[in-house]
Amino acid sequence: MSNILEIRDLRIAFRLDRKSEPFEAVKGISFDIPTNSTVALVGESGSGKSVSAMSILGLLPDNAIIPAASTIRYGGRDLLKTTMRDLQSIRGKDISVIFQEPMTSLNPVFTVGEQIAEVLRLHMGMSPRAAAARTVELLTEVGIPNPALRVNSYPHEMSGGQQQRVMIAMAIACEPKLLIADEPTTALDVTIQKQILDLIAKLQASHHMSVLFITHDLGVVGDIADTVVVMQSGEIREQGPVKEIFEDPQHPYTKALLACRPRLDRRPVRLPVIDDFMRGDGHPHHLEERKRGTSPSDPVILEVKGLNKVFSLKEGLFGKRLVPAVKDVSFSLPKGKTLGLVGESGSGKTTVGLTLMRLHDATSGEVLFEGKDLLRLSEREMMAYRRRIQIIFQNPYASLNPRMTVGQILVEPMKIHSIGKDERDRVDMAFQLLKRVGLSEQSFYKYPHEFSGGQRQRIAIARCLTMKPDVLICDESVSALDVSVQAQVLNLLQDLQDEYGLSYIFISHDLAVVKYISDRVMVMSEGALVEMADSDEIYRHPREEYTRKLLSSIPKGYELAPQPS
Amino acid sequence: MSAVLTHPPAPPAQESPGLWTLAWRRLRQDTVGMVSLAVVAFFLAMMLASFTGLIAKDWARERGVSYANPSFLAGNENLEAKAMAGKQAAKAPPVDLSDIDPLAPRYKEWEERAAKIAVTETKRAETLPFGGDKWGRDVILKTIKGSEVSIFVGLSGALLAVVIGTFLGAMAGYWGGKVNDVLEWFYNVFTSIPYILLILAFAAVAQATGKFGKGILSIVLILSLTGWTGIYRLIRAEYIKHSNREYVKAAQAIGATNLSRMFHHILPNVSHVSLVQLSQYTVGFIKAEVILSFLGFGVPVDQVSWGTMLAEAQNELVIGKWWQLFAAGASMAVLVTAFSLLTDSLRDALDPKLK
Amino acid sequence: MTAYVIRRLWQMIPTIFGVILLVFFLFNWVGGDPAMVLAGKISNKEQIENIRHQLGIDQSYVYQLWVFVKQVFTFDFGRSWSTNEEVSHILLTRVGPTLTIMVPCLIIETALAVGLAIGVAYVRGTLTDRMTMMICTVAMSISFLVYIIFFQWLFGFILGWFPVQGWSESFWRNLFYYAPLPIMLAIFVGLAPELRLYRSFILDEVNQDYVRTARAKGVAEKKVMMKHVLRNALIPILTNLGILLPGIFVGSFLLEVFFSIPGLGREIITAVNRSDFPVIKAVTVYLAVFTMIINLAVDVLYKVVDPRVSFK
Description:
CATH class of one domain in chain A: Alpha Beta
Strand content of chain C: under 5%
Number of helices of chain A: 21
Number of strands of chain C: 0
Oligomer: heterotrimer
Shape of chain C: globular
Strand order of the largest sheet of chain A: 7-8-9-3-10-11
Number of helices of chain C: 15
Structural class of chain C: mainly alpha
Helix content of chain A: 25-40%
Shape of chain A: globular
Largest interface: B-C, 51 and 52 residues
CATH topology of one domain in chain A: Rossmann fold
Distance between the termini of chain A: 36 Å
Order of helices and strands of chain C: HHHHHHHHHHHHHHH
Mean pLDDT of chain C: 84
Largest sheet of chain C: none
Helix content of chain C: over 70%
Largest sheet of chain A: 6 strands, mixed
Low-confidence stretches of chain C: none
Structural class of chain A: alpha/beta
Mean pLDDT of chain A: 89
């Protein structure tokens, strides 16, 4: 099988400013993309995978430096050394790209049809009428309903999934030989994700093109790739056919990546983390199964009855539009257990969490904590309960005040709730907590921007712990983290639950993570509670249609991965 | 969790940099920024020296002849000065009024006594370092004194406008709802009147009634009461943005009060915007003051500002006397350029983005 | 869309009322008794008494406010305190000269600013770009007054290419003989800040994701700028124009004062000097209303330019 693209010794550095050394993002990688096949480029954030892919078409920012020794051979030429003119004739025609965020990647002021037609007229020299006709064909091929009508839609009038289909249509319009897909499904809901992946696979086969698929999710890779290239910190750790990578990984990092993602069929006491493979004896430990589940006799710490939240938006001349975000949701949280709350975007799961914390005002319903209805308390009375229920948000980069030191962030809640005898006492407790969540004591004096995403989540967890809460709401708390970091934080959360008897409400769209950490699972869709059962039960015997649909959307790929022994 | 550490770890040897330290470091590396900062500092020092009377105290003294030439143009003819001197000389000799004036016999006595007291009547200089105006006042001293007014008005007006705008913007952005509606109405009213017209309207009332205070204070009030709108808009947008950020929700979750969230949490994240605006507004207000003084709505007649200098210069250019125009125009240009560049550098230092 | 326009017009009412209140507060309350104000300016006691009576100064503030509101809606502000000319007549006759200067100025300046901004953005980061921006910064720091004084002296007095001052009755003579120097001056001075602003608008767009997509499609850089970027940058440019538009009526009062052009700007300056409140009040209220209408027109125009805008 011949290769369509050959990358040799690619090095990319970025000049940050005049004084400092350029930052090396890619440190000499080489791999091939064969014709008519899919290559998956896998890595976590900072691995250099996107940067490498962008360099193929010269789409890097101006401050990128690539030495002459690096080559990217395509069609007998070195793409790194061709003129811009020649490169432009290849872009969109022989090699095209689809990006991660379709909403911002499409031009907001032109219709979808105009943008697709642009590439047809540019490279194929079509007349406006011919281009318009072909555009409708392409929209049909990518599965847009009512293509003749949709041609005149603007990007913001379409959903995320449809926008991505439009991007794909634009990319395949000129029958490219290589399609570069840069995390195309990361920003989409799980069910849509599956549809897009299927679409790409179908097009790859029917158009006989190669696909370079960039992702951080090994699970996705298992479904669609022929070859896998694993990157970390700008270097390739391992590459090979997908079967080999999954069944017999060689490099510790690959093993770690495969192992630390929660699986649907097992539940180890502790998730393996990268360090398990890269240090020590190279094997993870504590892999015994952990039993999870609830029983009717469990003491209940939090009970929610008939929770409703309706948002009112202004509309029309003087009118309002009522949007019910949470519809009559009821559940109970057993003490010391984890209740998982699963759903796609718009399901209302986050709103439930915020309403419990009274960060939103519920429209109606009851939230009973130790017999008191939290929703009926005045703000003053609520203060006493605030410390008992805490929340960890999704975005680690936005949940810590950039202008406060970690020490200030940790001491503030203690001051508010009069915890600790004096300042010295509080500072001591802060140091203790930092150690407990696995951060150095020096962190006390640092600012949030000096920490990575995973470390910031730990700080957020420490902040909650200062108040010694009973209930912790994790609102997509690990969703923004890399897989390996996610595993570490999940382990930490589990340790804390075991040690302090905390009760969790774990909100996420990631079914595998939810199954791993939850005793009981609630599925929500469009504000309503669809199904609720113990986690093992719901995954083995889902009763509702929607639950089944969700479960079938999980990429099966990882199932090829062997269990670490 | 209850053990008390006897030796808490000491702060690291290298202080962890906060926003301002980082910004200062970035600014230090910016040559243009540092030069502008130096120039601005120089002008400020000059202004303080002038304010405290260290220099240019006697700017109003008519030291030179009318339209005295600058030293470097000493040779040029000064027709105007000659004309003035001629006028004085053309005065008729004093009339002897001894017959009717009862005090007449005593004049001689007083003259002799006066001559004994050494009165140094300074001879009017033919040239001054950078020339003189119509009354022979030193242009350099006028420029220095004038800077005092312009810079003071610019800075204090900007400070007041920024304080008003930031406070109102914070209220509107954080509370939303009715408070926002009222403030937005206020904002709409002020901004539907073209800015210059608004200033002139305020100036008209100030001038007619003196209700805005006298002199410089009135200009400062006029400029700040009309200029707060721009900052209001910016700060309000920032507060809306930050109020929805998770760190503020987290503060609410741990029980921080509204006041704490507004000023302890959000304000430090927004203050850099106010600072840049302060710098920008100072520039705008200096330029505005000059124009207002030129039109006669600014400083009172007994004070000098760059604006009054330019007003005088208007007619001087035709007769070839360019030094006042140049002095006022150039010093203002240098200060404003430096301030503008400083504003840009401040913005880059506080919120760096890849260009 | 009609619903949108109606809703906006409805929302304008409190603002118009607010402007009336503000003007009233300034001129009737703070401004107070015209007798005090005019004592130095109009020596005719009878005239002052007349004005006092006309305004009903002896009446309560509520009555005065009512009179003012009536004036606004009947377009009758009475007469100028200094020239005794009817205020409405003053406004109508002075608008012409102001617009003769400002409209050509706005059109040419915008065209130049946008064109230069694209050019400079295209070569961003190069020496040309930085030099141009530096020149703009310095140019903006020299007072408008200095420019006027200097250019009037240079072009009018020394070179004699244009008249130093003056205005005529004929529109065409005005446009081609008396107006060019002021227009040139206005463009020259106004260009620098516009250029900086538009450049920043364009650069903001250049960093967006959709530009990367356009490049990935193989579109040449020039076309990316002229088609993709410019079209998006038009949105903030249009906003900016909307802000500038009401300002053309006050015009450049400095130019009118220096060049003795009988425009609205100069009229306002004269009125301020003479504390001629009726003129100032009238101009303020009408321009405010006009500004609101222009804002509405710009917002409606937005729909054409920015498809994301929906009329709710």
